[in-house]
């Protein structure tokens, strides 16, 4: 059985919660508890309490809190513990101490250390719905909560009141009361079964008719301007490289969509095999990738996955590095093309080897990040110079320091948009739009592959998939070096 959780609803007036940690997670857990009961009995212990959490505490003077290290005595008269620190070892010790006293523990983003989960909760008056994905995908639970909050009418509270009154008016045993309530609510169930079906069919029919009409109308209109012979002539004038880039874009997006990384590196090594000039390779990739990185980055921002301070330290130096890398590539690509090809092939091979290390590395404890600005500059520089590598360089470095993947991926994705934009503007200023057919091929090929790749996502184990991409990149790089030397 995949899910053995047993959902229960606690009467919060009778229990006391201890939260250990005063950062973002501590703030989030405190707000979650207070949303269920503003008078919740909470105790907070943290070496340092954030400014935002201090504001919450000032508005809720009934919450007991101390700014100091945790002690064993803090578990006295506690019913539930929430470990809200980034220190995995400490969280393990805290769980051991709490479990010895019969206290259940929840550790944020660490399912193995959880005796219970705090699910996403829908509050609609007397109606309360708790959603859990067994610790696998909190994002999906949050999306379901948002959907239900919009779908369930605000007056459901009145409906529950009316049904309660109706229930109390019924005579007899529990069975007869349930039968009366089922009969009273059966009309709602029948309406919901019948109406949406006819409505959906009608909308589908209307859409099909509209689509056929628009296709016919546009086709007839175009035929008055462009004849079939002229259309054939235009197709024959399309450069062969467009169709090659169509295949490259399709292949790269299949890799990136199914695995989660490798679009830039896959494009770069593939295009180098076909002899595309180096500035054109990187310029085309960045222009094509700018759209997807923009949508991805700002989606992460909307969902609260971005650390603004880290974003600033990555984006600003990263943009400077991207511009520098683009200018250097343009100079080397024009003056010393064979040397640049060799340097780039060695670089992509190193990235391939790094991907293997990423796939094989084990989870490590959180460490302090030093020289974030230098990391951003290096990531931007090599991304522009090599046509890819921002993710393998910056994301892997931050994850290797034990940072939470949610905020690393979100922040790096949004920063990537600004890095890609800076590189694209630089390449555009030097190259113009002569390589539009390459960009168009990458975009169209990637668009076709995107839904197929999305279906493949998760089918192949992540570690095996990354290693497969790494070996592919290494083989392509070695082939290029073999041709040169």
From TrEMBL:
GO BP terms in the entry: siroheme biosynthetic process
TM regions (residue ranges):
205-228, 240-263, 310-333, 339-360, 407-430, 436-457, 464-482
Q: Which GO terms describe its cellular component?
A: plasma membrane
* Pathway listed: Porphyrin-containing compound metabolism; siroheme biosynthesis; sirohydrochlorin from precorrin-2: step 1/1
Please write the reaction equations for the catalytic activity of this protein.
Answer: precorrin-2 + NAD(+) = sirohydrochlorin + NADH + 2 H(+)
Which InterPro entries does its entry note? Met8-like, NAD(P)-bd_dom_sf, Sirohaem_synthase_central, Sirohaem_synthase_N, TM_pro_TauE-like
User: What is the membrane topology here?
Assistant: Multi-pass membrane protein
Give the UniProt subcellular location, in the record's own words.
Cell membrane; Membrane
Q: What would be an example GO MF term here?
A: ferrochelatase activity
Keywords assigned: Cell membrane, Membrane, NAD, Oxidoreductase, Porphyrin biosynthesis, Transmembrane, Transmembrane helix
* Superkingdom: Bacteria
Siroheme synthase central domain residues are: 125-150
Concerning NCBIfam families, the annotation shows:
cysG_Nterm (TIGR01470)
Q: Which family does it belong to?
A: Belongs to the 4-toluene sulfonate uptake permease (TSUP) (TC 2.A.102) family.
Known PANTHER family for this protein? SIROHEME BIOSYNTHESIS PROTEIN MET8 (PTHR35330:SF1)
Name of the protein described by the UniProt record: Probable membrane transporter protein
**What's the source species for this entry?**
Apibacter muscae
């Amino acid at each position: 059985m995949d899910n053995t959780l047993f959902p229960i609803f606690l009467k919060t007036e009778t229990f006391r919660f201890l939260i250990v940690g005063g950062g973002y997670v501590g703030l989030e857990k405190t707000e979650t508890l207070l949303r269920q009961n503003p008078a919740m009995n909470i105790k907070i212990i943290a070496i340092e309490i954030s400014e935002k959490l201090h504001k919450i505490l000032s508005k809720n003077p009934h919450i007991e809190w101390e700014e100091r290290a945790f002690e064993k005595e803090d578990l006295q008269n506690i019913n539930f513990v929430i470990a809200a620190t980034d220190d995995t070892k400490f969280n393990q010790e805290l769980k051991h101490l709490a479990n010895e006293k019969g206290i259940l523990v929840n550790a944020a983003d660490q399912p193995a250390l959880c005796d219970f989960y705090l699910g996403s909760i829908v509050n609609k008056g007397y109606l309360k719905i708790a959603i859990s994905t067994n610790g696998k995908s909190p994002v999906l639970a949050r999306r379901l909560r948002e959907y239900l909050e919009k779908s369930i009418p605000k007056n459901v509270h009145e409906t529950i009141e009316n049904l309660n009154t109706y229930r109390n008016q019924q005579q007899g045993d529990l069975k007869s009361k349930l039968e009366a309530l089922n009969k009273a609510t059966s009309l709602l169930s029948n309406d919901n079964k019948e109406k949406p079906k006819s409505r959906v069919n009608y909308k589908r029919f209307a859409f099909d008719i509209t689509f056929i009409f628009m296709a016919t109308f546009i086709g007839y209109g175009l035929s008055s301007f462009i004849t079939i012979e002229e259309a054939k002539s235009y197709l024959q004038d399309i450069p062969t490289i467009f169709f090659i880039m169509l295949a490259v874009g399709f292949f790269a997006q299949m890799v990136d969509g199914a695995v989660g990384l490798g679009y830039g590196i896959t494009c770069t090594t593939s295009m180098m095999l076909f002899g595309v000039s180096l500035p054109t390779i990187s310029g085309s990739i960045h222009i094509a990738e700018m759209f997807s990185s923009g949508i991805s980055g700002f989606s992460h921002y909307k969902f609260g996955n971005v650390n603004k301070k880290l974003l600033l330290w990555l984006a600003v130096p990263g943009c400077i590095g991207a511009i520098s890398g683009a200018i250097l590539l343009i100079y080397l690509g024009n003056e010393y093309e064979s040397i640049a090809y060799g340097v780039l092939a060695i670089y992509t091979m190193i990235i391939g080897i790094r991907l293997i290390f990423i796939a094989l590395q084990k989870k490590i404890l959180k460490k302090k990040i030093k020289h974030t600005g230098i990391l951003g500059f290096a990531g931007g520089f090599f991304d522009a110079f090599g046509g890819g590598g921002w993710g393998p360089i910056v994301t892997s470095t931050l994850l290797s320091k034990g940072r939470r993947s949610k905020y690393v991926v979100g922040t790096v994705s949004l920063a990537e948009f600004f890095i890609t934009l800076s590189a694209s503007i630089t390449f555009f200023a030097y190259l113009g739009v002569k390589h539009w057919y390459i960009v168009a091929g990458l975009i169209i090929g990637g668009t076709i592959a995107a839904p197929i790749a999305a279906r493949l996502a998760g089918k192949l184990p992540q570690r095996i998939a990354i290693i497969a991409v790494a070996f592919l990149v290494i083989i392509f790089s070695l082939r290029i070096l073999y041709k040169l030397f």
